[in-house]
Amino acid sequence: MHINLRRFFPILDWGRTYDRKALSSDLIAAVIVTIMLIPQSLAYALLAGLPPEAGIYASIAPIILYAIFGTSRALAVGPVAVVSLLTASAIGQVAEQGTAGYAVAALTLAFLSGGFLVLMGVFRLGFLANFLSHPVIAGFITASGILIATSQLKHILGVSAHGHTLPEMLVSILAHLGEINWITMLIGVAASAFLFWVRKHLKPTLRNLGAGLLLADILTKAGPVAAVVATTLAVWAFGLDGKGVRIVGDVPQSLPPLTLPGLSPDLVGALLVPAILISVIGFVESVSVAQTLAAKRRQRIDPDQELIGLGAANLGAAFTGGYPVTGGFSRSVVNFDAGAETPAAGAFTAVGLAIAAMALTPLVYYLPNATLAATIIVAVLSLVDLSILRKTWGYARADFVAVAVTILLTLGLGVEVGVASGVVISVFLHLYKTSRPHVAEVGLVPDTQHFRNIHRHAVNTVATLVTLRVDESLYFVNARFLEDLIQNRVTQGCAVTDVVLMCSAVNDVDFSALESLGAINLRLKDMGVRLHLSEVKGPVMDRLKRSHFLDDMGGQVFLSQYDAWVQLSGKSTVTAPR
Amino acid sequence: MHINLRRFFPILDWGRTYDRKALSSDLIAAVIVTIMLIPQSLAYALLAGLPPEAGIYASIAPIILYAIFGTSRALAVGPVAVVSLLTASAIGQVAEQGTAGYAVAALTLAFLSGGFLVLMGVFRLGFLANFLSHPVIAGFITASGILIATSQLKHILGVSAHGHTLPEMLVSILAHLGEINWITMLIGVAASAFLFWVRKHLKPTLRNLGAGLLLADILTKAGPVAAVVATTLAVWAFGLDGKGVRIVGDVPQSLPPLTLPGLSPDLVGALLVPAILISVIGFVESVSVAQTLAAKRRQRIDPDQELIGLGAANLGAAFTGGYPVTGGFSRSVVNFDAGAETPAAGAFTAVGLAIAAMALTPLVYYLPNATLAATIIVAVLSLVDLSILRKTWGYARADFVAVAVTILLTLGLGVEVGVASGVVISVFLHLYKTSRPHVAEVGLVPDTQHFRNIHRHAVNTVATLVTLRVDESLYFVNARFLEDLIQNRVTQGCAVTDVVLMCSAVNDVDFSALESLGAINLRLKDMGVRLHLSEVKGPVMDRLKRSHFLDDMGGQVFLSQYDAWVQLSGKSTVTAPR
Asked: Is the terminal CB of chain A with fewer CB neighbours within 10 Å at N or C?
């Protein structure tokens, strides 16, 4: 019982050894992360199309719940760019941005996503996330980064534009170019340029000036805060909001409110698939961050328990005015680098954000949306990495196709179609590759007991004996290929009396392949040819023994290919019985 | 050019050596097959919900076109039970049975199916059929047999009933039980009993009476003809059609008419998916029959050319008043057993059927539908083979699940949902199996250079060295599994300094797995552990060399696992440099 509780509440694990040293490390990390999270949370809420406070609320309860249920000691949970984009795309289809229905749909999305994650965790279905291949994720993240950056252009230009795909957005922005607000654009471009400079050049500059590594790092991460402060002051001082610059405006001063997600069947039906997608993508991103950080301290995380932790965080977001959350890369790395030792650091961050929500929100009244858009653009452009196209092209064409299709369809048809197509095409390409396995006809290397490809090496062969080495597990997708291949090979050589399948690389033979082997055996019998197997692996042999195939087989099963050669060719230094 | 023509027109191949002996064999086979096909064609048209002549028309042009383009020498093309059921299910959704629109939809279905098959053949996409695993096909055929037999009960009982799923059909029959026509039922039950007896007992009885094997075979196959003649005479003699027995009635006396498939976008849109399904299922059934028969004479067929042959046959059906066709099992076996040597036998059968269509159709005026239903029921019950459930249960649970799901969903939700779910579930189960590959931790068998599982054998190990043998290709679905596994193993053993992945059964490493290996390598480095590879296959090594992974790897690539052991453990009879 005790052990069970610790499995489901990892807090019982690290909580009992919590000491003063860990406390001070966690407190320092929490202060740093809180400062970074305030502008980031406001910005991601803007990206999701929600009021700014939603971003802060989404960072409070979820962080605490993850601290209780999650297994990573450094992961920081909250709104992230890609999930915010997915949220905007999903709820944009059921409600108009700015309406009460829109915010309720965001809660529903978080609720469904949380429920799905918890279910996956309880039933230990974390492996389902593996269906997203690395190329598909990389292509999807890159395309999402481009989509997100483009979606923020309207805030930089001060125009109103719409659309969930790249062509829609570009057309919409071009149509509204006449409405550009030049002061907004000045603020947006200046903030973007400043943030790019901070990201690229501030850290080396500070280091040259003699700053410590940690200080330089913190100041660099605080760049967005500086941009927020400077542009807010500028708007306030010059009354720019009266000149058409859109500002954040009133943000309620309160702790996260208690909210209820909408659960009407229509709404749930419309958001179920997007919720699953958000869960899986959020989980994949979160686990890879958590695993990377855990390895640095020789710790481990439990992916199935992570599902429960992230699920609890999303359920928390659903009941406290937030929207879907996951473990974010940048905030987690900051948390880790700032020295967070336990999930308590997250809890302290939550306290910091709660104080900000109650006390500091009036300070962002004059904050221009263009500044938030600039922080988003600079942050997401680091996600855009088109080198994945070059890398996969050089390594494996199938992976290249998966990346290219995912990027093109995500940009052209939207995030949901893009990622779904990516999954389907990677599965298909994998099956296609294994549908035509590498099969080598082999012969005996002279003076050895080794067998090699007859087309690549000088080997001994016998006209009556064909030996084929299959370099793939046999299953339904390639079973018929083997039937064709053997039938073709044997109809070519009239002298053939024995066919040996060398199975050293066959890790599995499914029922379809078993039936194909049976068909091959019968057809060979009809041609007066015997079928033999050699070097069959233990688990495969156990399974074959449970069928009738071995009884019906014309030939034998040889432990080694050399045994088969000696007995069937009659040629060896040892005189074998024929 | 010459060779190309022979590839696309196999008739040029066998046509040039056609002689008097082949002619007489083919003529005899044609007469036998024609006699068998007349009742069968009428019955399958009834099953498809089409007028009886459609079944005969669908056997004439398609046979001739297949003779020109097909590669099998014995395959007999025409209406078959499962495809007739699929046709009824597909066009029942777009038109009312008995209307002109229904017959036109059947032509459209044949046209789309033919077009799709030709395209698959031209682009050599025959491998797509492999996505239907044997268990899915077996489950689908069995469930279809049950559905077909049930669908014919209404003709046996003389009631009108509807439905495309088993529950629908049973409920509908029960609701109409009050309308039973007892004379129809008498005919139907008697015909069924007679046909069952013929199928089970006539051949042994005849053989006991001294009949030759071929004669006994032919008389057995002619059973349906006898049932047709006897019941037709009974209806005519006693005027049973006036007592409510439904009869075939007027069948036009004509050669196949020239028809045009309907090509309105709505119709094409509604029938496209069913047409693809019919094509693939028809192709799979046809190829397996053709391949089995070809092997008996040490011949071969070309699956991609078969697609073109079957496609041409379906296009022929679309323009001559037919409906979708494929290579049938029973008719092909009869054709083969009767001695058909070339596709010319098929052409002669077509001539026989054309004569029947012109001259003999008045003779079937009084033929009761109940007799046709009886021939269908007896024929399809031989397709029902529930032993596939037992066989797959004993051999592999994943295959059992695929069969069970396919059968249940085909019966419960219809043929299209059933087979589509079967395909999806087999792909999913295959990926699931490979998502948790067998990984053995291995050690050195004393006094050898062999490595075996440490949990199964008494082997030597070293605390600083972990060697893992992965028995599966590494790709996106199992890449993360390996990451977790290695991280867990290394965090357990604090003394570990070296991890060797033994890759003798790894046939491929895709881009996702490459990135996972990269991540594993970095995380191990963070823990102060080196990653090594051993026994990497040539093609995998070639690919790894095209990436940066080998440059970044903490350890080395060893040609053999024994080399790795000697160098990393320092323990061997040979003193190795450390």
From this structure: N
Nearest to A191 by CA among A385, A30, A376, A457: A376
Cβ separation A478–B399 shorter than 8 A = no
Q: Which of B134, B300, B430 sits opposite A491 (nearest CB)?
A: B300
Is A516 close to B437, i.e. CB distance below 8 A? no
| Spatial contact of B325 and B114, defined as CB atoms under 8 Å apart | no
DSSP assignments along A357-379, one per residue: IIIIGGGGTT-BHHHHHHHHHHH
Cβ separation of A135 and B512 shorter than 8 Å? Answer: yes
Q: How many residues are given for chain A?
A: 578
Calpha distance B317→B321 (Å, rounded): 6
Q: How confident is the model at residue A572 (pLDDT cuts 50, 70, 90)?
A: low
Sheet with A498-502, side-by-side order of all strands: A451-453, A439-444, A465-470, A498-502, A530-534, A557-558
List pLDDT tens digits, range A389-425.
Answer: 999 998 988 899 999 999 999 999 988 888 888 888 9
Torsion sign over Cα B467, B472, B476, B480? negative
Q: Chain A contact for B435, CB < 8 A?
A: yes
Helix orientation angle between B415-435 and A476-492, rounded to the nearest 10 degrees: 90
A contact residues 312-341, partner B, Cβ 8 Å cutoff:
none
- At residue B576 the predicted structure's pLDDT band, cuts being 50, 70 and 90, is very low
**Contact assignment for A510 to B133 by CB distance below 8 Å:** yes
Return all residues near B242 (Cβ < 8 A) that are at least 6 apart: none
Closest chain A residue to B490, measured at CA: A298
List CB contacts (< 8 A) between A471 and chain B.
507, 537
B16 touches chain A (CB under 8 A): no
- Verify whether the Cβ–Cβ distance B515 to A487 is below 8 Å: no
Q: Which two tokens stand for residue B340?
A: 């058909």
A417 and A409 Cβ atoms separated by less than 8 Å: yes
In this complex, do A131 and B515 lie within 8 Å of one another by their Cβ atoms? no
Rounded to whole angstroms, how far apart are CA atoms B394 and A514? Answer: 13
| Residue B578 C-alpha, separation from nearest chain A C-alpha, in angstroms | 26
Which chain B residue is nearest to residue A519, measuring alpha carbons? B292
Give the C-alpha separation, B356 to B364, whole Å. Answer: 11
Q: Mean pLDDT for chain B?
A: 87
The pTM assigned to this predicted structure is 0.79
CA distance B366 to B42: 13
Q: pLDDT tens across B463-482, in order?
A: 899 999 998 889 988 888 89
Distances from the Cα of A21 to the Cα of A11, A25, A26, A298, B356, angstroms: 17, 6, 9, 20, 98
The distance in angstroms from the start CA to the end CA of chain B is: 65
**Look-up: residue for tokens 């070339």?**
B342
**Interface A-B: count of C-beta contacts within 8 A:** 198
Reported in sequence order, the residue ranges of B70-194 that DSSP labels E, i.e. its strands, are 77-78
In chain B, domain spans: 2-412, 439-569
Q: Given a cut of 60, is residue A3 above it in pLDDT?
A: no
Residue A555 and residue A522 in contact, taking contact as beta carbons nearer than 8 Å: no
B210: amino acid identity, one letter = G
Q: Is A538 on the interface with B (CB under 8 A)?
A: no
Phi-psi region of A294 (alpha: psi -120 to 50; beta: other; left: phi over 0): alpha
Residue B276 and residue B92: Cα distance in Å, rounded?
A: 17
- Whole-angstrom Cα distance, residue B23 to residue B26? 5
Q: Is the pLDDT of residue B188 over 90?
A: yes
Pick among 3.40.50.2000, 3.30.750.24, 3.30.1330.60, 3.40.50.2300: CATH of A439-569: 3.30.750.24
- Please, what's the b/e burial string for B390-419 (b: 16 or more CB within 10 A of its CB; e: otherwise)? ebbeebbebbbbbbbbbbebbbebbbbebb
